[in-house]
């Protein structure tokens, strides 16, 4: 029954799936724009507080999503500093919460990858008198396939998020309901067949996106895999 529902292409299921992808892909792209340069900057820079920032990033990788959701809720509520924007219970609020959750993960993984790459490029870039921004750009560009892991990890963390999304999105039908919150709702209602169908779709999306990106980036060819 669950498998039949998953492949039925029901209009509501398609709408929820598309919304899930829109929110998570948007959040992952924004988090990557922040996290990848941050990770590379930490790899090439040396300053007193560097180790503390790296330790903080690693700690934030395990930041409880419900806490993130609560903080974003307070900031976007009518009594909060950004309440005038009217973003609470909208997909934008969900994106903001996911960006906060995903960015430390991407930045930390990127830093680990860029640190190894910097060891290979350091002497060359210094001899060329490259500026810090040029060093960061070079590392990010040449390590783009390695950094793919960081982006995919961020996407995986985002697509499976439920706590923060439920708090700031409200799980509103035809507005902010996504796969994870729909699964939680249907499970609570006792509709396990539909919940399983949504779960199959969620797993399928995660696998399809990962395989699709690997194929497009050609990381599976030759020695690149």
From TrEMBL:
Gene Ontology cellular component annotations, sorted alphabetically: plasma membrane
Coiled coil ranges: none
Record's keyword annotation contains Transmembrane: yes
Major localization class: membrane
Alphabetized UniProt keyword annotations: Membrane, Transmembrane, Transmembrane helix
Its membrane topology: Multi-pass membrane protein
InterPro entries: ABC_perm_TupB-like, MetI-like, MetI-like_sf
Cell compartment(s), UniProt: Cell membrane
Domain ABC transmembrane type-1 residues, every copy: 17-213
Bilayer-crossing regions: 20-44, 56-76, 82-107, 154-172, 192-213
Domain of life: Bacteria
GO BP term, example: transmembrane transport
UniProt cross-references to SUPFAM superfamilies, sorted A to Z: MetI-like
Transmembrane is among the record's keywords: yes
CDD domains: TM_PBP2
Species assigned in the record: Roseinatronobacter thiooxidans
Identification of the protein by name: Tungstate transport system permease protein
């Amino acid at each position: 029954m669950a498998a039949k529902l998953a492949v039925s292409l029901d209009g509501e299921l398609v709408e929820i799936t598309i919304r899930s992808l829109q929110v998570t892909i948007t959040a992952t792209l924004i988090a990557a724009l922040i996290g990848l340069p941050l990770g590379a900057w930490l790899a090439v820079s040396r300053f007193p507080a560097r180790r503390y920032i790296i330790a903080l990033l690693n700690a934030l990788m395990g930041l409880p999503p419900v806490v993130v959701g609560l903080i974003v809720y307070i900031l976007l509520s009518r009594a909060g500093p950004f309440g005038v924007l009217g973003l609470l219970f909208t997909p934008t609020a969900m994106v903001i919460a996911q960006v906060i959750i995903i960015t430390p993960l991407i930045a930390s993984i990127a830093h680990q990858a860029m640190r190894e790459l910097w060891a290979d490029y350091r002497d060359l870039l210094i001899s060329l008198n490259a500026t810090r921004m040029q060093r960061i750009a070079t590392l990010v560009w040449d390590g783009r396939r390695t950094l793919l892991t960081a982006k995919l990890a961020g996407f995986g963390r985002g697509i499976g998020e439920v706590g923060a999304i439920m708090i700031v999105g409200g799980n509103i039908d035809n507005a902010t309901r996504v796969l994870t919150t729909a699964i939680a709702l249907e499970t609570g209602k006792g509709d396990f067949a539909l919940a399983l169908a949504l779960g199959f779709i969620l797993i399928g999306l995660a696998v399809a996106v990962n395989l699709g990106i690997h194929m497009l980036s050609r990381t599976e060819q030759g020695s690149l895999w």
